[in-house]
Amino acid sequence: MSSWNNNRYHSESSYAPSAPSLPDQYSNNNAPSNYHHAPPPPSNHGTGYYGQLSSSSYSFPQGTNPDVIRTFQMFDRDQSGSIDDKELQQALSSAFHNFNISTIRFLIFLFKDPREPLRIGPKEFAAIWNCLGQWRGIFERYDKDRSGKIDPLELRDALYGIGYAVPGSVLQLLLSKYGDGSGRRVELGFDSFVECGMIIKGLTEKFKEKDTRRTGSAKLSYDEFMSMVIPFLVSYD
Amino acid sequence: MSSWNNNRYHSESSYAPSAPSLPDQYSNNNAPSNYHHAPPPPSNHGTGYYGQLSSSSYSFPQGTNPDVIRTFQMFDRDQSGSIDDKELQQALSSAFHNFNISTIRFLIFLFKDPREPLRIGPKEFAAIWNCLGQWRGIFERYDKDRSGKIDPLELRDALYGIGYAVPGSVLQLLLSKYGDGSGRRVELGFDSFVECGMIIKGLTEKFKEKDTRRTGSAKLSYDEFMSMVIPFLVSYD
């Protein structure tokens, strides 16, 4: 993997066909630069982050697909108006993928209010459903060889396609967590692809909020830094 | 938990008996402030971070406890000079705790070179062993009621005692990941305590490296930010 650790993504990515073009004010800027340009990333996904959805409301957003409502109600067996991690795992497995439980917990952590118990209501469920639908579309578009797996180059292109120019060193660091330990080249199934995508998108969007002048860097207080990062950690038990 | 979400930790902590005293230049600074004052945190722990230990060396550091060497050799069954995650889990279970495998993977990610396969050599093993010994000492010192569990106040005091004044909102965000989903007050066993401690210590130390003037805030490029954070994420599969 070490030949992978140079800056070729950086230089390539400046010219990648899928890269969003830079506005004039960035054209002389080699920064992490166009991480913040784009076809706007999945909106429901975006709105789901950071407790903007309240799990205290039990009503679905207007225009929610009836299948989504039916699925939620089917797994909300005690009619409590919210479902737990295992119920969410079952609810998503038929429509999307049999996500492992820690991916499910990661989704819940990103979409629910952190002060609420580890359960989600209709709004979060609809947001997660829409978000996964969008990631599936991206996965299928960039899995060019139809292998059902995304390789590192396809992942880079996929992230680039939704507006995130991620340096090769950063991608390598992230992908190093998805290997089988052998050091062999990593290929991501949909499960890991969604995790990587949401980590990159979520952290980048949080950084953008602080990089108000779009310089590619931001001044953060210790509290801000910690509060930005911790939502992306999962508990390991 | 919401009464927990105000700033009382912040204000309390400024006067907590276990708080390291502020040097003069900080005495008018209400910042996230004394996250970077000390008793210096566990040194072996510190040196373990960010690939400073090479898994390519198979020799133990001078003065390594013979028990540590014996334990490593016992579990390096193929005599390869390195052990994998399951072997590490077994090697640590007798001396410390039967850590769950994702905690073990987290330890490995923090101590090994990210470009290396998911295995650790003698140096990393000795560093992890020392690090866990230090965390166990801290756990026992702050588990004042000898419950075998650390509650949020004891965790705050423990982190304070090793020099990290963590805002209540940040601690709450972190602890929200360790609940059983019921929203009840969280208590941490040694396993989760080590995770929380290493997350806080590791992220804070990374932030300190960028906060060279010790102002409580730091300017980060996008690449720096992402590279600081990703080592603390685990893969969810």
UniProtKB/TrEMBL annotation, chains A, B:
Ranges where the EF-hand domain occurs: 63-98, 130-165
Keyword tags: Calcium
The keyword Calcium appears for this protein: yes
Keyword Calcium: yes
Positions with biased composition (Polar residues): 1-16, 24-33
Region listing for Disordered, in residue ranges: 1-48
Name of the protein in its database record: EF-hand domain-containing protein
